TrEMBL record, chains A, B:
<dbReference type="InterPro" id="IPR000835">
    <property type="entry name" value="HTH_MarR-typ"/>
</dbReference>
<protein>
    <submittedName>
        <fullName>MarR family transcriptional regulator</fullName>
    </submittedName>
</protein>
<dbReference type="InterPro" id="IPR036390">
    <property type="entry name" value="WH_DNA-bd_sf"/>
</dbReference>
<dbReference type="InterPro" id="IPR039422">
    <property type="entry name" value="MarR/SlyA-like"/>
</dbReference>
<dbReference type="GO" id="GO:0003700">
    <property type="term" value="F:DNA-binding transcription factor activity"/>
</dbReference>
<dbReference type="GO" id="GO:0006950">
    <property type="term" value="P:response to stress"/>
</dbReference>
<dbReference type="InterPro" id="IPR036388">
    <property type="entry name" value="WH-like_DNA-bd_sf"/>
</dbReference>
<dbReference type="Pfam" id="PF12802">
    <property type="entry name" value="MarR_2"/>
</dbReference>
<feature type="domain" description="HTH marR-type">
    <location>
        <begin position="1"/>
        <end position="146"/>
    </location>
</feature>
Length: 171, 171
DNA sequence: TAGGTTTGTTTAAAACTTGAACCAAGCCCG
DNA sequence: CGGGCTTGGTTCAAGTTTTAAACAAACCTA
């Protein structure tokens, strides 16, 4: 089968997208590095934890929400723990598990970094979009993410309903 | 001034965006690494070169199009040169300049990798969007990129029209 | 209980990024 | 012309991150 190349419209969209995502991620990383001493990913870890029940989550669940590998997460969490922003706890229900729990200090750091972060996201993203476009962006990116999820992390267990992760957060 | 937090709609959009861009970049990197032995950025370098007049471009111009620092580009180009996919040439009109020129081998590698890459982009992105959404995506990301450009790389020269880079590609 | 899975970490090697420092070449202006 | 600033590009050192493979412990199911 011969390749279906991108149409001119698709090409324009693709290029604009690539440029925007690169620039945006750079800008956000820079801002957070500056103001909070950590890159976007690390901030996201704290942020996700802060919204979880009891501000804690199992490593695997955390990795899943952040769309990163467990190995990568282990590395990041180790640094955050060293900085005292979170703590690892044992899981009572599953002795293999370890739980990342946001510390008070971590929460404070997050609270202090949040305004600057939101300002950045706002000024570079939402301030430039109409309300309508915000909705469009959500639909578009949600569709993309969905496609990539079901495809990527497809394991045998996904085909066995009764074995699917339920993850009561073990909390 | 108190922070204007994100509205629920904005939050949803932001999260979907972050997840999608991460997953998409991962998927593309994986595919290209697999099929062409290089990450997305390197492929982009070859790709931009292949579309430039005489398949060559000055380093600074290349960095500008790719939205990366010159330092970062130097590193990448060094590797690509080592792999024989491009060659550095002296610039006749400006003895400071160096030009990255795609080699025949580089072009061949690109030709072979392109179908797989396009397939990936298509299946993860465009196949999931309506024609209308493609247009929306372009407008949205173009707006974002524009905002980030004028802000970021603002140098004194930008305010002096007659000194702005014209870059006749020196070719 | 055996066999296969899942969890999370470890390890070692690469790959990448950054920022500053630097040199050579170009440009400006008195 | 010649000093002084700017630009193009690389180099360097340091640190960060990423990956993949291997692993042990704990789980699960038959």
């Amino acid at each position: 089968m011969t390749t279906r190349w991108l149409t001119p419209e698709e090409q324009r969209a693709w290029r604009a997208y690539v440029a925007a995502s690169l620039l945006l991620e750079d800008a956000i990383d820079r801002q957070l590095q500056q103001d909070a001493g950590m890159p976007h990913l690390y901030y996201s870890i704290l942020s996700v934890l802060s919204e979880s029940p009891e501000r804690r989550l199992r490593m695997t669940d955390l990795a899943e929400r952040l769309k990163i590998t467990r190995s990568r997460l282990t590395y990041a969490v180790t640094r955050l723990e060293k900085d005292g922003l979170l703590r690892r706890e044992a899981c009572r229900y599953d002795k293999r598990g370890s739980i990342a729990a946001l510390t008070d200090e971590g929460f404070t750091v997050l609270e202090r970094a949040a305004p600057g972060h939101v300002d950045t996201v706002r000024s570079f993203l939402f301030d430039r979009l109409s309300e309508e476009q915000v909705g469009q962006l959500e639909e578009i990116t949600a569709a993309i993410a969905q496609g990539l999820q079901e495809d990527g992390t497809r394991t045998a267990a996904d085909d066995v309903p009764w074995r699917r992760r339920s993850s009561p957060a073990c909390s």
